[in-house]
Design brief:
The chain has 146 residues and is an alpha+beta fold. The chain has one domain: HIT family, subunit A (2-Layer Sandwich). The protein is 30% helix and 14% strand. Helix 2 crosses helix 3. The N and C termini lie far apart (51 Å). Adenosine monophosphate binds next to loops.
Length: 146
């Protein structure tokens, strides 16, 4: 079998686990009993959001059906809010499995990026302004809550 260069064991100290534990700050867009959505701090386009399950899953292989369904439904809410706030139809849904694919945080997450595949910025390259992220998070949250 080919040796895979990737993490397969869930690390309780990964950055998204720390967010779920309330140990590090983030710009929340939406939360329910099974999922959390927040702003990506190094967005590949304005309005880049991440959706995570409240389950210890490294990648898609670990995701339990009820959390898979919950992540998808939260992603749908976020995508619809992005369409409204950014007045555009095009939103990329992306998800990386394993370091070979470019995954850098080993807690399963869906990227929702209001962009085009032809215009997408670099992956986790440039940190966004904190105030801008807070402002966008608030706008998206307001639309979801409406
Ligand atoms: P991936 O490479 O698919 O695992 O994506 C990880 C994403 O997490 C990247 O887009 C990063 O910009 C983002 N990221 C890393 N640290 C944080 C953080 N503290 N808050 C929000 N997003 C983060």
């Amino acid at each position: 079998m080919t040796e895979l260069n990737q993490q397969t064991t869930y690390d309780d100290n990964n950055i998204f686990a720390k967010m779920l534990d309330g140990d590090i700050p983030y710009h929340k867009v939406y939360e329910d009993d099974k999922t959390l959505a927040f702003m990506d701090i190094m967005p590949q386009a304005e309005g880049h959001v991440l959706v995570i399950p409240k389950q210890k899953a490294v990648d898609l292989a670990d995701l339990e059906p009820e959390y898979a369904a919950a992540v998808l439904m939260t992603s749908k809410k976020v995508m619809q809010a992005q369409r409204q706030v950014f007045e555009r139809e095009g939103v990329i849904q992306m998800q990386l499995n394993g370091s070979q694919a470019g995954q850098t945080v080993f807690h399963y997450h869906v990227h929702l990026i209001p962009s085009s595949i032809h215009e997408l910025g670099g992956h986790a390259v440039t940190q966004a302004d904190n105030n801008d992220l807070a402002d966008i998070a608030q706008k998206l949250a307001a639309v979801i809550d409406a």
